[in-house]
Amino acid sequence: MKDLNLVPTFLWFLLLFPLHKAVANGVTPEETKQLRDEVREMFYHAFDGYMEHAFPLDELRPLSCEGEDTLGGYALTLIDSLDTLALLGDRERFTASVEWIGKNLQFDINKTVSIFETTIRVLGGLLSAHLIASDYATGMRIPSYDNELLDLAEDLARRLLPAFDTPTGIPFGSVNLMYGVDEHESKITSTAGGGTLTLEFGVLSRLTNDPIFEQVTKNAVRGLWARRSKLNLVGAHINVFTGEWTQKDAGIGTSIDSFYEYLLKAYLLFGDEEYLFIFQEAYSAAMHYLYNDPWYVEVNMDSAAIVWPLFNSLQAFWPGLQVLAGDIDPAIRTHTAFFSVWKRYGFTPEGFNLATLSVQHGQKSYPLRPELIESTYWLYKATRNPRYLDAGRDIVASLQYGARCPCGYCHISDVEFHKREDHMESFFLAETVKYLWLLFDLAVGPDNLVENGPYKYIFSTEGHLLPATPQISLLQEHCSYFGAYCNRDSLKEEPNASDKSADSQETNGSRVSEGWVRTRFPLDSSSFKASPVSGLIKGLCPGLTHEQKYGISYLASVDTPHEDNSAKQKDTVVQSQAIVVVSDQISNQSLSGDGNDNNVKESTERELESDPSQS
After folding, report:
1. Is 168 annotated as a binding residue?
2. Which of 162, 219, 403, 582 has the greatest number of beta carbons closer than 10 A?
3. What does the pLDDT look like over 169-214, one tens digit per residue?
4. 319 and 372 in contact (C-beta within 8 Å)?
5. What CATH number is given to the structural domain containing 165?
6. Active-site annotation holder among 38, 200, 214, 257
7. Known InterPro entries for this protein (predicted)?
8. Between vectors from CA 174 to CA 172 and to CA 179, what angle results, nearest 5°?
């Protein structure tokens, strides 16, 4: 990223980091235990306040000690809190909550809900709790539990599916749980709204053996990525029918943030290298065009011209994502810059202007967001540097003295004057206190499900625990190709299906009888050959690029000279060398090809040709 021609970087540090003059005393081991217990008490202060004064309404009004329905009217905060109860080892309340939800919750209601919020909060909360309650290995199995939460999750997801019925595959932003998409529903959605569904829907597919959920969300990601700019940047808002970008501001914060997050996490959880490839390209472009060490700005996705020299609070997840990607050094510097804003105000405002070094007008609130705390936890886990415990202590102090209310914790409507607002988002219990507790428990000597449990966990963007169990993560158990999940029931019925029948299935729009698109990417050559259903799985043409293999190459680049772009790409690739999750396995394989893969690529290119945003 070129110089912003704003305030020189060294002046930013002089102005923003007065805390270096008096570094906080290090957190002692005894204080760490006290902080962990204090955070636990914070959770129960808010959770008990919700259960006493708001349940079964969605969320708590912590000043007036009342409840309000904000999403769908189905005990949102309780669902969002389930895996935090399990993480804290509260078997009694976890069991009681799961049993109540299993008996009382239903989604056959005339409510129009956000696809994004319902997926990450409700669907994710149900799936995470199901995976804990149904598994002896977690230590929190409920003997009487009989998959009630999984059944609810499947019912909810099926009610969300009509939103994906668009020409681009990118879903509408909202859907009515009883009647589907309203005819007057807006056709504009955010990139994060369309691209942050893969983890929850993918897990559901693997648990129910129905690939439709995973496929529609993967198609949504492909639909967004196929419409990226020549710079490999995506905008903030898009028309789900025409594929035109209605807001071309590219950034890592508002409206885009978790699109990047779920690309990497979908690869880590599912092992699907298509997500890794897209992440590598998208991450390299972000670091090349958006990064002005240590800050990030928003630019026009086509020209890379700066449109917003702004730090917004949702960007604070990025250092944590960089830890997962293995890019630690820039994560450390960016976290230091972001935390300096917290130190200045006691909270991070929704927007902080990097040109004026002041709170952005109209963006003065702090709605108890977890992103900075999330990154603090990940950086401490990666470095064990005690300064992140110091940061955690400062955050606890700010929340306790600035946001604590009679029945919970309040939004801060103005970070400069610490004005309180009578609202508490459910994610305060799902994420904010969860990451704080994990930070201090890790320092004490962890004794929890995440650090010492039977599985490695991926956190959803709502902080829900998704375990890398064999059923979820080992594609080879069920199929030998990337990007899909085998329907084992149909395979059992016809285990020796002939190549002829398979070809006839694929010729008909590359769909199987259940009506879902199959992608045919072998996991490795040995499993491909050993597969008992190899007649149903076709290979890839040797010599194709990753983009061509996956049918997601940028079409306009065919008619555009590459000289300048390739030079930029070289710089970008160098910056991405720190990513440790890269695998060249797929490129080293010798794979057989067939014409249907070319058909997939041609179909995607025809769709791009008809997309005015690419002209």
Report:
1. no
2. 403
3. 999 999 999 999 999 999 999 999 999 999 999 999 999 999 999 9
4. no
5. 1.50.10.10
6. 257
7. 6hp_glycosidase-like_sf (IPR012341), EDEM1/2/3 (IPR044674), Glyco_hydro_47 (IPR001382), Seven-hairpin_glycosidases (IPR036026)
8. 105
